[in-house]
Amino acid sequence: MTHTGPTTRPGGNAAIRRALRREVPTTLGILADPRDFTAMRRYRSFTFHDHDAYLRQSDQLLRSLSSQHLHTTLALFDPDEYADFCEDTGLDADSPATRSRFTAELARRGPVVPYTGAPLADLLPHLVDTTVRRATRHYATALLTDLGTCAQCGEDIGRASCAQASRLLTRLLDVAGPGTHHLVCSVPAPDEQLLAVLHAEGDTTAAAALDAEEGIEFVTVLAAGIALRSSGGVVLRTSRPGAPDYLHGWRLEGGRLTPLTAGEVFSAYCTDAATGDPLPPEPGVEYCAGFPVTTADPGDHH
């Protein structure tokens, strides 16, 4: 009898499936916070009982996937967002398949961080920070978008505030000069406290080099404070080899940055925010007054 159909070598299908598996990316939705883990335990199909054991098993799973040369990313699994997802889609929340589908949605819209082989305990802070920063940026952007146009001049308030914030940041870094700069902007918003952190390297011959994403986040948060006319503040710490760190501060009020005195900067950093008790000054740090950062731009009035 002559066989004329397609032939497959023994084990060939398995080899093909393994090769295809290496083409499929994997995302693990991780419950980083013990409270989030506890919230998921209300679902009977979620069979994990101990958060530490869950993280250990997740770490081992990631190592196993990496050993198979699979591209793997991590996403922060939020139980509240998951519940909203199930309500919006009509899917059964008490189902591993639904959790898998939600994780795929997280991978699609981000943020995710790639698994690099580092211990999960080292990756989780980076994942949480990335997620919080993305949420802060989206919230601040939504605030700016909802403000509409200025009743006096018709200019878009959000866009004008972003332009002003960008000029202020450029001015801060220009005056700060050479060195490694660490900036923090804190702004109270209607629903939460907005916080943005920026690192930059100053040079005597060129503009400061900074991460583009951090720059956008910083400008967006500062712009929200400018547009809302809310209180807030900016702190700049500059480090140079062989010199103490210099710490400057500004108060955000009326849409402008007002320099703090050296005493105000010292008081802010050397007072326990929770108790009001004095704290010892940090060694190797000089607490300095903020310097003027006005941009002299006629558009800085929103």
Beta percentage is: 15-25%
Parts with pLDDT < 50 across at least 5 consecutive residues = 1-8
Rg calculated over all Cα atoms: 25 Å
Strand segment tally: 10
State the separation between the terminal residues, measured CA to CA: 88 Å
Q: What is the percent of helical residues?
A: 40-55%
Q: Tally the helices.
A: 9
Principal-axis shape: globular
Series of secondary-structure elements, N-terminal to C-terminal: HEHHEHHEHHEEEHEEEHE
**Largest sheet report:** 7 strands, mixed
Short description:
By secondary structure, the chain is an alpha+beta fold.
Which descriptors apply to this entry?
alpha+beta, disordered N terminus, three-stranded mixed beta sheet, 302 residues, 9 helices, seven-stranded mixed beta sheet
Structural topology:
Elements: H1 12-21, E1 26-30, H2 34-40, H3 51-67, E2 72-76, H4 79-89, H5 96-109, E3 113-114, H6 120-146, H7 157-176, E4 179-188, E5 193-202, E6 209-210, H8 212-228, E7 232-239, E8 245-253, E9 256-259, H9 262-269, E10 285-287
Structure in words:
This protein is an alpha+beta fold and 302 residues long. The protein is 43% helix and 19% strand. The protein has nine helices and ten strands. The chain has helices at residues 12-21, 34-40, 51-67, 79-89, 96-109, 120-146, 157-176, 212-228, 262-269; strands at residues 26-30, 72-76, 113-114, 179-188, 193-202, 209-210, 232-239, 245-253, 256-259, 285-287. Strands 4, 5, 6, 7, 8, 9 and 10 form a seven-stranded mixed β-sheet that branches. Strands 1-2-3 form a three-stranded mixed β-sheet, sandwiched between helices. Helix 6 crosses helix 7 (157-176), helix 6 (120-146) crosses helix 8 and helix 7 packs across helix 8 (212-228). The longest helix has 27 residues, at 120-146. 25% of the residues are buried.
